[in-house]
Amino acid sequence: MKTKSYVYGEWVEGTGDGVQLFHAVNGSPLTSISSDGVHFSRVLDYGRETGGVALRELSIHQRAAALRALAKHLLSRKESLYAASKATGATKADAWIDIEGGIATLSGYASLSTREFSNEKFIVEGPPERLSRNNTFAARHILVSKRGVSVHINAYNFPCWGMLEKIAPSLVAGVPVVVKPASDSAYLTCAMVQEIVASRILPEGSLQLICGSTGDLLDHLSEQDVVTFTGSASTGRMLRSHPNIISKSIPFNMEADSLNSCILGESVSVTDPEFSLFIEEVAKEMTIKAGQKCTAIRRIIVPAAMLHEVQNALVKRLSRVVIGDPEEEGVHMGPLLGAAQKKDVHANVLALAKHCEIVAGGDENFELVGKAACKGAFYPPTLLLCKNPLEVDAPHSIEVFGPVSTLMPYNNIEEAITLVAMGRGSLVSSVFTYNNEEAASLILESAAWHGRMLVINRDCAEESTGHGSPLPNLVHGGPGRAGGGEELGGVRAVKHYMQRTSIQASPDTLMAITREYMSGATTTHTDIHPFRKYFEELLIGESLVTHRRTVTEADIVNFGCLTGDHFYAHFDEIAARDSLFGKRVAHGYFIISAAAGMFVEPAPGPVLANYGLENLRFIEPVGIGDTIRAKLTAKKKIKKDKRPGEDQATGVVVWDVEVSNQDNKIVALYDILTLVVQKQA
Amino acid sequence: MKTKSYVYGEWVEGTGDGVQLFHAVNGSPLTSISSDGVHFSRVLDYGRETGGVALRELSIHQRAAALRALAKHLLSRKESLYAASKATGATKADAWIDIEGGIATLSGYASLSTREFSNEKFIVEGPPERLSRNNTFAARHILVSKRGVSVHINAYNFPCWGMLEKIAPSLVAGVPVVVKPASDSAYLTCAMVQEIVASRILPEGSLQLICGSTGDLLDHLSEQDVVTFTGSASTGRMLRSHPNIISKSIPFNMEADSLNSCILGESVSVTDPEFSLFIEEVAKEMTIKAGQKCTAIRRIIVPAAMLHEVQNALVKRLSRVVIGDPEEEGVHMGPLLGAAQKKDVHANVLALAKHCEIVAGGDENFELVGKAACKGAFYPPTLLLCKNPLEVDAPHSIEVFGPVSTLMPYNNIEEAITLVAMGRGSLVSSVFTYNNEEAASLILESAAWHGRMLVINRDCAEESTGHGSPLPNLVHGGPGRAGGGEELGGVRAVKHYMQRTSIQASPDTLMAITREYMSGATTTHTDIHPFRKYFEELLIGESLVTHRRTVTEADIVNFGCLTGDHFYAHFDEIAARDSLFGKRVAHGYFIISAAAGMFVEPAPGPVLANYGLENLRFIEPVGIGDTIRAKLTAKKKIKKDKRPGEDQATGVVVWDVEVSNQDNKIVALYDILTLVVQKQA
Q1: What single string gives the DSSP state of each residue in A320-378?
Q2: Exposed, middle or buried by CB within 10 Å (0-12, 13-18, 19+), for A234?
Q3: A570 and A442, same structural domain?
Q4: Which of A9, A192, A659, B10 has its CA 20 to 30 A from that of A452?
Q5: Out of A455, A463, A483, closest to residue B133 by CB
Q6: A235-255 pLDDT per residue, tens
């Protein structure tokens, strides 16, 4: 049976024989794969016209809600995915990272997108930019969905996570996806896509799957499309220089395997907890997924004085790793994905061995647990030692995509920094030390070469998510050899699929475009107090100018006595005269409290609470005898869905507050956040 | 005399004959240019080793101060630059954009970098990311200077601005620059660099200049270098696919000439102010710098019903443009840069004329003012008309880099949006309408194709900075044909020259690296109140836990009476019972005021003022009888330079404030901003 593609709303079986795939553990034939006969230009058009249009009809929160529902659905179907993953040779722990880690990334994006973005179809970024003296001409930055598709060309090692971590931000951005998993494990991606398609949660056309080669897909890309790639540097280079990608300036994001490092700090002794944490992390990262991880530790950088101890401890630790059929009890490490991968790993170990000494593994002498296991795809944990790593390039440039790592000594911190940089760009590096000064200098001097770095010590090790795990809210990627790209990083990845545009116009026009009030825009006024209006009834720009209040000496005295704040600027005539203010002034907190006193409506109404305040600046001091008033303007509305258990649906209303004095000078400026009830709920 | 390069600390004259350059107005020989003999790998090494190291020793504010001083210096030398610019054929207005616009960009970056960034050598981006239940393991994002050089390959049309707008963010980022201006006007860039070098304001090695070809420069780039390019799409494509740039994943930012459009709204009638504003802007953008501007209007998109009126008005307006030697009184438009440019412009006009009708200009029949003027480089304002623009690609794809634009009609707003998109990516588009709904739909549907858009109407026209002007705080660039890059945009451009890295560690380690306190990090305590400490004496993480205060019914009553805030949740027992809170609670403003009452020191001291407050969230309600206390922790320090006229140097201290109740539950969380005096000042 062939692994099918899901394109233009159909499951399509490729023509021809296709490529035969085998079970990683026992070597038996599994499925074949071919995309011959798929019309790639039709795939792209279908994505753009069916998926793109449908996604752009949803708001960002609606797209996030679809991801949340999808994550829930996939979690309910996880057993079938675990079953399908066995053929890849994954242990249960390996499969957990891929399947449940991937699903968690999906729900992570659902949450962060709802939290960080407004419930609109576009994103407004940053504050208004003032461009003119009278503020009749200003600017804002917005991001809108690209009008194309995003094509994701993924690696074989994470058939599920690799797809989900990329489709999540793209779908939130409103951009449909075409997923092209690496052929070798595409059947597992396909199993997950079957669940996704069957669920009908995503709008039709927003996700297509190509199992097999990409054919002439890239030739049909256009200026609004986006390509992301995860895999080997050589394939990445080829794709990045594709004439159509170059000529249309198509964004190309690449995340390539790199020679990630792990550094043992100079300050760590054998008896420190950091020493054993280091040994454990290195061994773990060498053997999880049999080292087939782009973030695995390939270079182990330790103080020269500790080389012997580290080597002994690591060799001992690795000797305890049980290799075999992951179905068998007690097995720690499964096979590589196939015989081809093993051949590649062994060839690279031999290449490294020309410059380094093999101190563990590296040959066929290892025990295998489980009768079904086929020796063809297994490889033992292999440790090499390079004694002169500053002079030899091999361990910094030959990446062995398996359970293989090279140990190398350094003599001082500058040497350690140089060694790390010799990888010429990595996804991740970790530092083990309990000395925070040492950590800070290693991090600040090495960060330019990495997309992610960790410092592990006794305080954080237990809760650490580990060297090898990219997280949805953290940037993942790295410069140079790691591909120069950036994935994840929370909202950053969503923006990658959108176009950022600066918009210059009058404040009124900007308010109409962004649906956010800004200073200079026209405010409107009705006879009904805005706090008496339901969420739906409120218009952006709707405003209330309060009555006035003269601030008296009695106010200052009463406020100071009530709050206990007797700061000299309010109470000491002599010191106040020499102060910034030149006189006694009212408490800033009094000004905002009195402003609330002027704009708050006492009786119950749709405004449930003022739960926060942002960007408060005291602009001018308020002296005794000054008369203040407040202007409250509905600035931004974020509609929220009614959650299970809630009586009423609500929304967030952000109000712009300006407190001014008798000379119409603004004395305080801030935003308040309120929760307002929806009428229709 | 040859135009020299400034490399490895020397002014170097290229060997060989070089390329001869001519005066744009009178065609006389001017200078020649050659970079033969320049050792390009030495240029890069010198930048990395001398310039990079020196720049990275400065804090971001120190780098910004250098830019501020440089802008001041260049402004004092502007007359010599205006004199040198005459040979390019620029009018005074053209030269003003290039020279003073460039200098303003420099000082713009000095200001925004001081305002937006801390005074450190790195940038901390975004809030802490919580990663674990007990918060022993968390993350932050930092950006550090790339360890390479940035190579800026610039266009001939803005020899000064083109250099300054790119070096400003790179230098703020701590990355030395190698500037390679287009040969044709490199003498003007060189004149400015002579002033920069002579001023000795920038650290040696931070700015090098290559006049002539780039030789084998690109072959020597490494993973930490950055390339930016402004110019034609064809050159950009060639550079972007350079094998060394591809293989090392070197960031390549491209800004290419594009077919920018200007749209007259459907709602505009001939008598509306927007009609004449539109005609004026189009004519201006066609003729400033003789149309040699990557942001010039190339496509004029108007309602079919208005085509005739627009054509007549434009032809009439263009006929008033006086062409000639910019030295002569009353001249509006000078020559193109040279005969080669003119030949190119004319060839492209002929290519367009196969599909469009020439309705103004396009030939040799035009008057030239000034005896010195050499007809070779002048070209008249030329208007073409394309009646079927949806069917013809030429006016959307042939860019004429001169005073040339094509008029085209649309029948409805969807057609207008389609026509705009047919440019396949532009730097900028402007919309003329007084109807904000029309504006919003045109902008939101077209933004995906642009880096910048404007809406001009009667309210903002007078203060508008115009269709053609990129501004330092706004994104400049565009997708597709415009190169897919992003320049300027305020802090965004600075970050382009830095590496973003997520750092995972314990809160204490993160505090040591970022020099910012975060929740979960260890706080320290001394016997001296932190408000009694000078800026330098305060340590990050230094903390004060206040005495306690029981909140009473009297407090609520007094606070309500004093402020006038009688909201039912504080005063109406019956309504409060049914509210979110279930009982009467204290005013949120009372809580933060009482907290200040507990932590403020009454007597004069180093803390001059609490000038702002950020990120306030009321987490738990405080009821009658609850007992609160505050914890104040020094979170972040931003040292400021003493400005002329200030008595004392100060710094900003951001304090983390946690107000908690008797159960150690946090009731309110916020940051306060204070101005604190420096001791040594």
Answers
A1: T--BB-TTSTT--B---S-HHHHHHHHHHHHHHHTTSEEEE--SS----BSTT--GGG-
A2: exposed
A3: no
A4: A192
A5: A463
A6: 999 999 999 999 999 999 999
Integer Cα distance of B484 and B493 in angstroms: 14
Query: Is B193 in contact with B209 (CB distance < 8 Å)?
Result: yes
Same domain, B202 and B338: no
Domain limits for position B106: 2-254+492-499
Highest-confidence segment of A389-398, B17-26, B574-583: A389-398
Is A231 in CB contact (< 8 Å) with chain B? no
Question: Which of A134, A245, A249 to probe by mutation at the B interface, max B CB count within 10 Å?
Answer: A249
Which residue(s) pair with B207 in the sheet? B177
Cα–Cα nearest to A326, from A336, A341, A316: A336
CA distance A168 to A145: 14
Q: So what's the pLDDT on residue A119?
A: 92
Distance, in Å, from the CA atom of B495 to the CA atom of B173, rounded to the nearest integer, reads 7
- Cα separation, A437 vs B542, in Å, equals 18
Query: 10 Å Cβ neighbour count for A600?
Result: 23
Between chain A and chain B, how many beta carbons pairs sit less than 8 Å apart? 406
**Contact call for B563 and A597, based on CB within 8 A:** yes
- Considering the domain architecture, whether residues B422 and B455 belong to the same structural domain is answered as yes
Distance CA A523, CA A539 (A): 10
pTM score of the predicted model = 0.94
The whole-angstrom separation of Cα A231 and Cα A253 is: 11
CA distance A677 to A649: 6
Residue A294 known to be catalytic: yes
* A11, two tokens: 């499951």
Q: Check whether residue A288 and residue A177 sit in a common domain.
A: no
- B255 is known as an active-site residue: yes
Are B268 and B248 within one domain?
no
Digit-coded pLDDT (tens) for A43-96: 999 999 999 999 999 999 999 999 999 999 999 999 999 999 988 888 888 899
Alpha carbon of A552: minimum distance to chain B alpha carbons (Å): 11
Domain membership of residue B628 (yes or no) is yes
Q: Does A20 contact chain B (CB < 8 Å)?
A: no
Domain identity same for B248 and B343:
no
What are B348's two structure tokens?
A: 């492209």
